[in-house]
Amino acid sequence: MNKRRFIHTALVFASGLALQAQAADAWPSKPLRIIVGYPSGSSPDIQARMLAEPLSKALGQAVVVENKPGASGNIGADALAKADDGHTIGVIGNGPLTSSPFLYAKLPYQPHKDFAPIALIGSAPLVWVVPKAEYPGSTAAYLKAVHADGERLAYGSIGPGSGGHLGMELVKQALGFKALHVPFNGGPPILNAMMGGQVQLTLLPAATVMPLVQAGKLAAVAVTSAQRSPLAPELPSMDELGAKGVNIEVWNAVMAPARMPAAHQARLASELAKILGSREIRQKLLLQGWKDQDPSPTALTQRIQADTAVYRNLIAQKGIKIDG
């Protein structure tokens, strides 16, 4: 009897351990939070809300979007890096993951240590646009004029360290022309200044500038990606302009705190790959001006590493800083 009682007790104990392990693996056990380091209506915010519903269905828990805007996305990125509840992820733009460590002297997080890559949502090249009157009718003629204009040219960006600023510095470096940087507070002021003759060129998203190109108010020179983009297939690429090695795209990604268990990261990556691969989501991204990409953590890691190397070198060469 004692032996049977011992065996019974051991089985009950083992069963209890198994149930505890199963409960521990039942993740997520509460609503998931998506931190967005940008204001409501921004592209990361729109994409986070687009993913929230299908992700909620896949995980069986509510998914709530929380905006923490400021410092070009760095405030939200820092909040994500410090999240320790196991149920927080974030949608982050490329800047806080690639260029911010070199632009800011006291960044409160370390992208390569504090985050785990989950999914690349989508990417988009910028479009190089100029006033219609400044465009002589062909890319070759325009590039010749740009080289001849020297210090007369000025280009607008949405601020120091922005994609348009760093991107135009890469283009200038690759093509060998000069243009003064003039920062603005957003895309519309740049376009107003361009119409008024204060700046002669800029790099902005296709969704912002292509309606003005189609209306005949601006001329589009090229896209900033290495190859032609399905978002503006009629425009030449950087390779075609002779800017070899330049591949400037803005992109948004889903990241998790590095401390999140690997099994939970893997589940998120798997579910988001299915969601981002669906026809419905791909169509939504295209209509918003984004092309779909390989969403895998491996592809995202490679993108982060490649862009980080480019911006590290550029920022060091140009001495670009946002704070002391």
Automatic annotation (TrEMBL):
Keywords: Receptor, Signal. SUPFAM superfamilies: Periplasmic binding protein-like II (SSF53850). Residues 1-23 form the signal peptide. It comes from the Bacteria. PANTHER family: BLR1237 PROTEIN (PTHR42928:SF5), TRICARBOXYLATE-BINDING PROTEIN (PTHR42928). Belongs to the UPF0065 (bug) family. This is Tripartite-type tricarboxylate transporter receptor subunit TctC. It comes from Rhodoferax ferrireducens. The lineage of its organism: Bacteria, Pseudomonadati, Pseudomonadota, Betaproteobacteria, Burkholderiales.
